[in-house]
Amino acid sequence: MPEEKYVAVVRQPAGASQHGEAAFFDVDNTLMKGASLFHVARKMHQRGAFTLPQAAGMAWKQFKFILRGENMDDVHAVRDSALTLAAGITVEDIKALGEEVFDEMIESRIWPGAKALAQQHLRVGRMVWLVTATPIEVATVISTRLGLTGALGTVGEIKDGAYTGRLVGDILHGQAKAVAVQGIADAEGLDLKRCWAYSDSHNDIPLLSMVGHPVAINPDARLRRHARENNWPVYDFRSGRRAATLGLKAATVGGAIYGLWRGFTRFRGPTV
Predict the structure, then answer these.
(1) 28 among known catalytic residues
(2) Catalytic site residue 26?
């Protein structure tokens, strides 16, 4: 199995894949539109876990993520905010939160095309794993609800049944994903040259490069260029992407922030 800090969660008992093959999917902007962690933070805001200005800051990072792709400064900022806010919350509460977030905010944002690719792999007997910086609890819910094999995700430290606000290891990102996938391959007897990997981000090039069938989905500019240079398949499920991007860039920053604040205001809920 991969290093303990990346914890693999298998949905059903399974031996090695029938063909020694598997498919590995990133989550944010690959399997779904936007960042799943943002929606966890949004749900926590509904429950009164943090202030409107904090929520608006996370919303602005989500806005930039959808528009421009992954930015590591924003990834780490949202991660650090979420960890701080999660301190003291019980594991059971986070699991329940993950279920609510999937039902209310994630399921409708899953790209049908990406879901169809995952289901096609399952139909022919391949394992399908999520490999994501998303918290393992949320990644597990997504994997289970979609009927996938399992998930690898970022792990929060737990003490006495509650989160401490610290990570076990570091965020599952970039080269760390490649290390985790190698661990899965070793444990499950997979031939990585006969496996697939899907991502939207150039940060996942180490993962994509280690499999025989790398695929770019909704790629950022650097990954699109790399995929083109290496003859990797590219899928883009963002309908009207160019028109939407031009429209968003034309909007003023003030207008965008105002809209995000208004959106969060509508979702304010009672304090738990």
Answers:
(1) yes
(2) yes
